[in-house]
Amino acid sequence: xxxxxxxxxxxxxxxxxxxxxxxxxxxxxxxxxxxxxxxxxxxxxxxxxxxxxxxxxxxxxxxxxxxxxxxxxxxxxxxxxxxxxxxxxxxxxxxxxxxxxxxxxxxxxxxxxxxxxxxxxxxxxxxxxxxxxxxxxxxxxxxxxxxxxxxxxxxxxxxxxxxxxxxxxxxxxxxxxxxxxxxxxxxxxxxxxxxxxxxxxxxxxxxxxxxxxxxxxxxxxxxxxxxxxxxxxxxxxxxxxxxxxxxxxxxxxxxxxxxxxx
Amino acid sequence: xxxxxxxxxxxxxxxxxxxxxxxxxxxxxxxxxxxxxxxxxxxxxxxxxxxxxxxxxxxxxxxxxxxxxxxxxxxxxxxxxxxxxxxxxxxxxxxxxxxxxxxxxxxxxxxxxxxxxxxxxxxxxxxxxxxxxxxxxxxxxxxxxxxxxxxxxxxxxxxxxxxxxxxxxxxxxxxxxxxxxxxxxxxxxxxxxxxxxxxxxxxxxxxxxxxxxxxxxxxxxxxxxxxxxxxxxxxxxxxxxxxxxxxxxxxxxx
Lengths: 262, 254
Known about the structure:
With 262 residues, chain A is an all-alpha fold. Chain A has one domain. Chain A is 73% helix and 0% strand. In chain A, helix 2 packs antiparallel against helix 3 (52-68), helix 4 (74-83) runs parallel beside helix 7 (137-162) and helix 7 (137-162) packs antiparallel against helix 10 (213-220). The model of chain B has no long low-confidence stretch (mean pLDDT 88). Chain B is an all-alpha fold and 254 residues long. Chain B contains 11 helices and 2 strands, in the order H-H-E-E-H-H-H-H-H-H-H-H-H. Chain A binds chain B through residues 17, 19-20, 23-24, 26-27, 30-31, 33-35, 37-38, 40-42, 44-46, 48, 50, 126-128, 170, 172-173, 176-177, 180, 183-184, 189-190, 194-196, 199, and chain B through 15, 19, 22-23, 26-27, 29-30, 33-34, 37-38, 40-46, 166, 168-169, 171-172, 174-175, 178-179, 181-182, 185, 188-190, 192-195, 197-198.
């Protein structure tokens, strides 16, 4: 009950900034649509050998996935909590910092996810985009589990990035670098299948496509049961690695925390 | 005077300059990676070859480097000025407030990105596309770039002006960074898709494709006239909108 109350309080807080949140959402809407324009226009001019329905569904789902599956708390963690000392208030509470931050971030994702669903319904109808989704209930459930794991993975990754501020004063360049890597390897730019083969191979060896590309492709129904099971297993492994690393790094970093003047 | 003040700021915060340079080059590199990835599959785009599309991206980096160097930092600070009532001090100065709020801060780091992109564009055009560039063509290119700068400035100003009513919407500026990146593509991107709504972004597709056509020895057609038309329209509108919005400015306690 106490956790539920905290959840509701956070939700009230972000509801105050719903217009700002809408602008963030519109921002996440723009890039997938720009790339969708490129592919649809290219398909008119070239023989691309790609299924436009799959591509259109992928980019529309990217609007939703980008706003719900990708966490963005790293700057708040680094600047507000560590550099300006707001971490103190979390340390004094009986709930671990990781879970408090998780609860705060989740509200933004829920709100933006709401915008995302509305946008997909409106845009697919206005622009007559035919969508392709997985139809088998078992596959759908597994794809949704993959989405949950993807969010946990991206959240833990962003926590790891944020707590680097225990050691670094200037984190902006690292965050921007991480953003660029994320855009390319997660599948924000193009689906992994459209990457040059060497880059696709590099991407598959990293955790990034498991945050966006694989869960979205699973929702489209691109994988067999065995393929889906492998994706879930790899996601769980990466999550385990990230979480353990987070625990170790946070444990070491907190010893350096001086509340103010970091 | 503004240039001198900004240079002193650069010398005082050297590490900030270094990080800004790094970030600016990073995004420049990302735009090149993006076009390389896209043209890996698509070898031509409505008459634009793979190499011409890459040249367009390099030219865009030259252009956007100048724009970010001159204006972006100022738009980043826009909401802060309105929210904390700092616009008061600008309005009381004997210079035009729009000029001051647009050109207070200069991002020298972005000029370096622009310089690198400019050299890369020249080398790419002469070595990979085997084009000969005359002084006259380069001068014409720079003149059109100047017109395009006024257009994109007007667009950013019009959107940022909305923050006079709602200063918390500082992320409108972040959105403009994304929207401007549409300029990397030729106009066919919005003209040849079935989604007619995107025609509203048509002017943006002229900002770099028109000047680059001069360097690529391609016919300009009506594109230059359209660019001038949209630039004039947007500039007049943004000026009017700024003055109109100032009537609603209520300082910090508003």
